[in-house]
Automatic annotation (TrEMBL):
Keyword hit for Glycoprotein: no
GO molecular function: glycosyltransferase activity
PANTHER family assigned: POLY-BETA-1,6-N-ACETYL-D-GLUCOSAMINE SYNTHASE
Membrane-spanning intervals of the chain: 6-29, 283-303, 309-327, 339-363
Keywords: Glycosyltransferase, Membrane, Transferase, Transmembrane, Transmembrane helix
Protein family membership: Belongs to the glycosyltransferase 2 family.
SUPFAM superfamilies in the record: Nucleotide-diphospho-sugar transferases (SSF53448)
Official protein name in the record: Glycosyltransferase
Source species taxonomy: Bacteria, Pseudomonadati, Bacteroidota, Flavobacteriia, Flavobacteriales
Species whose genome carries this gene: Winogradskyella pulchriflava
Pfam families per record: Glycos_transf_2 (PF00535)
Residue stretches making up the Glycosyltransferase 2-like domain: 45-178
Source taxon at top rank: Bacteria
């Protein structure tokens, strides 16, 4: 049996793996409609941990403070900022009676550790239902809190939301960031629906205060400076306690990076954190990513050699048909439908960049928190 023949059969297996993944995503999340039924408002504490975010707080806090919600407080945590962040927080605190300010001083043992600052904010909150977002985020509507909090129930102690990125016309980097964000959401929403929640995004998520303290907070990974969102969810979420919220009114919108260098550094932090996930999650995520790389490498190689090219093209078309159906329905649901037409190009660029980042992380450790 020739090398080309072996590669062809490997390609068939790889395409099969990709199809299984995308069909699972399709039926577990892409084809589902969001539930928009709102419930009675439960008291919530919105927690925002900020480090050198004076400008973003000025712009985005009004959108949070003016939510159409009957009972909520906003806990602002200043994590040893060196700019005017604390002054901005004090200004809002003087104007609104539902703001609580926590000023975190630098402590050598926890220097630069966002988890320490967040823990102090959680301790200071007065309500059991906690909603988390970042200073550079704004809600997509004044019903954001109503939608997120409506997913809590006697069983559901965690709510995973969607953190979108603002659109910037004629920017390939912006399209790449949004594509990666939709793909990530497709996976973590799908796995959660399949009973295997593995991550959430700190830009838009919620959980009960008692869940945090009953699981010893961030103690299990306090030495890892990143992962205040995904590592905590990976540790405590299960098939019974996790709910999803992906109605368009429940999104938060963040400012995306505008330079490739900054985005690469951000992705390096995220990818380094994923190495601490549970084994089953690392296996599935690794298998999906490996099958993506092999699909592109083997597909291109087999087309160059023209070996069984009709079958190779048929397999490529089949895989793209299922993938684009799953991705397209998700992109429409998450209000990024214009990404569908560029999806193959964006996917190729993204997986190449991720491979570069993985190699870079083996060589050196990325920096964390500002």
């Amino acid at each position: 049996m020739s090398i080309t023949t072996i590669l062809f059969f490997v390609f068939i297996v790889v395409v099969g793996v990709q199809i299984i993944f995308y069909l699972s995503f399709l039926f577990s999340f892409s084809a589902k409609r969001p539930e928009t039924r709102l419930k009675k408002h439960v008291p919530v504490s919105v927690i925002i941990c900020a480090k050198n975010e004076a400008k973003n707080l000025e712009q985005n806090l009004p959108f949070i403070l003016n939510q159409d919600y009957s009972n909520f407080e906003v806990v602002l945590v200043n994590d040893s900022s060196s700019d005017g962040t604390l002054d901005v927080m004090k200004k809002f605190e003087a104007e609104y009676d539902n703001i609580k300010l926590v000023n975190v001083k630098t402590i050598e043992a926890f220097w630069g550790n966002k988890k320490y600052a967040l823990t102090l904010g959680i301790k200071a909150s007065k309500h059991n239902f906690l909603v988390f977002t970042d200073a550079d985020c704004k809600p997509s509507s004044n019903k954001w809190l109503a939608h997120i909090s409506s997913k809590f129930s006697n069983q559901k102690a965690i709510v995973l939301g969607y953190g979108a990125y603002a659109k910037k016309p004629f920017s390939f980097l912006n399209q790449l960031i949004r594509f990666e964000t939709v793909m990530t959401a497709l996976q973590y929403f799908s796995y959660a629906n399949l009973g295997m929640p593995y991550m959430g995004v700190g830009r838009n998520m919620a959980y009960r205060k008692e869940l945090f303290f009953n699981n010893n907070g961030f103690n299990g990974h306090i030495s890892i400076k990143s992962g205040d969102d995904d590592l905590f969810i990976n540790e405590v979420a299960d098939n019974k306690n996790t709910a999803l919220c992906f109605s368009k009114e429940s999104f938060t919108i963040s400012k995306p990076k505008t330079f490739f260098k900054d985005w690469i550094l951000q992705k390096r932090r995220h990818i380094s954190t994923a190495s601490f996930y549970k084994t089953k999650h690392k296996f599935l995520l690794g298998l999906f990513y490996s099958s993506q790389i092999l699909f592109w490498c083997l597909g291109i190689l087999l087309l160059i050699t023209t070996y069984n090219w009709q079958w190779v093209i048929a397999l490529i078309v089949l895989r793209f048909s299922i993938q684009l159906t799953s991705f397209g329905l998700t992109a429409k649901k998450l209000d990024d439908v214009n990404l569908i037409f560029l999806a193959p190009v964006l996917e190729l660029f993204l997986i190449s960049t991720q491979l570069f980042i993985f190699i870079a992380n083996l060589i050196s450790t990325p920096k964390h928190w500002k």
